[in-house]
């Protein structure tokens, strides 16, 4: 965590004299490429420095501090910025470095507070950081199902005190033992007056008499070890930053390396700084709607979804439709978050909502019950699957499934699960010719730690699994650095899909990660062993090798252990660790809670729209390909892909999509493990506009 090379806010650099000294220091070392990792202040400073560079060198020549020749050799300064800030307040980037880790800290605290608050029937007011940006408060509010939320971008309407107390009283009277209020440190009311956590606490105590406590999180949020997302994000950005510097010409503007979906992009530094200033200006001038839009699509999205789910609004009218929700496959963290938001949004739309226990098997046995808004309270932070899940596919019990679909008059089926969920819905679609009852709207939310469902870049649960595997590997590395000269061979799950071991490998700095998709012949194994032998001669006397469970029929974990043991004899010794089911467990990460919540909402809204389209004369009849889809994140948009289309790009024998975006991360894995690699295959980020 933190920064090894140290960081500071520098007063001197804000003056021209300070920048003149800085220019001289760089020129003395022949440095003309600068990679700046910091917030908007540091990046604005860097851009000013760059624009003054020519003038600063001239001044140094005139003062006789450097020769004209030296000034000519160093005439150009290239700058690339990376945004390191837990506030996520920089426009143009989806996520800044450190934001995800800060959310991890906040959610750990909220989970801990939730248990004590429930035991004591208390109200908690939590103050989180973020300066003038409400991102941390917003996402933690969404990921914890907070009762009330204060963010600077959208101050509460006048008279909010009455409304808030009324709502807290309501949830308490319905039997909730817990109220959580989240407040961003920059929270203000409509007139721009700060709202403090103590003011909110006193309000609740005076008006409702609830036992209320304030917790100010403070610098806990900056600390701790970085999350997997942050480690991979910053590794990717660091690599992209150097490539941007190498490719810079005199005409390229200073750029910021940023994330858009899962792609690295480059943005003009000053455009980002300008939009970031525009947000603040909009807030100062009380143009709050605009401030939220300027923060970007995902911020606005989060805010709208929070408002939809926080409090039950009676449906305008009862709809004629019934939806059923089930979990299929192995458990994955975030499944419960998706069920919760799908149930609540279904109820908002006026549908009858059923949940099914134990997957398709439960559907065939009639384990189906209707649920209400409060039946899913508290599900957000729960790992595993509260509904229960099974791997059974529909073709083994098709008749009975059809019978129950008819009996309960189900017109929409939302299946949350892994490869079996996708395969199962495909079987139901292919049986439509035989059974008219299956001509209904179906949607799959991919949820599996393996991330092997076609139609999405990320499956629900894979972020939690990578974090679990990473934490284990961190501990293994600590043990290895104690014993010295030791190589650990760690086996990860994932079926045939190498996503989990590749991404964990990047997050923990593994020496190699063996996966099925990237074949490794015998000379690769030989090169890996030699590489580790060389490494033991340096001062880092430990090795970590990851192996996906099904990466090779013959090169098993046992085989690799024997190979490394005999080849490393006298140089290093080996140990095996099979991570197993701990990768499936644990509370969902903030990303998975949030992602599950969003997918649940979007899936049900899509299903409602489709149901309206195919509703004729009092019944639903859906027979087209696009009436059964997988919802997923593709690059940066949520897309719906028909299962019949996805069938063409699926390898069913190995349960994999035929093309996988994350394979291009493997180049970085090898580069970071210090292998000599060619960067000709590296795909540079494109220059984009904010």
Automatic annotation (TrEMBL):
One of its GO terms (molecular function) is monosaccharide binding. One of its GO terms (cellular component) is membrane. The keyword Transferase applies. It catalyses: beta-D-fructose 6-phosphate + ATP = beta-D-fructose 1,6-bisphosphate + ADP + H(+). Residues 1-244, 323-606 form the Phosphofructokinase domain. Its cofactor is Mg(2+). It comes from the Eukaryota. One of its GO terms (biological process) is canonical glycolysis. Keywords: Acetylation, Allosteric enzyme, ATP-binding, Cytoplasm, Glycolysis, Glycoprotein, Kinase, Magnesium, Metal-binding, Nucleotide-binding, Phosphoprotein, Transferase. Pathway: Carbohydrate degradation; glycolysis; D-glyceraldehyde 3-phosphate and glycerone phosphate from D-glucose: step 3/4. Catalyzes the phosphorylation of D-fructose 6-phosphate to fructose 1,6-bisphosphate by ATP, the first committing step of glycolysis. Negatively regulates the phagocyte oxidative burst in response to bacterial infection by controlling cellular NADPH biosynthesis and NADPH oxidase-derived reactive oxygen species. Upon macrophage activation, drives the metabolic switch toward glycolysis, thus preventing glucose turnover that produces NADPH via pentose phosphate pathway. This is 6-phosphofructokinase type B.
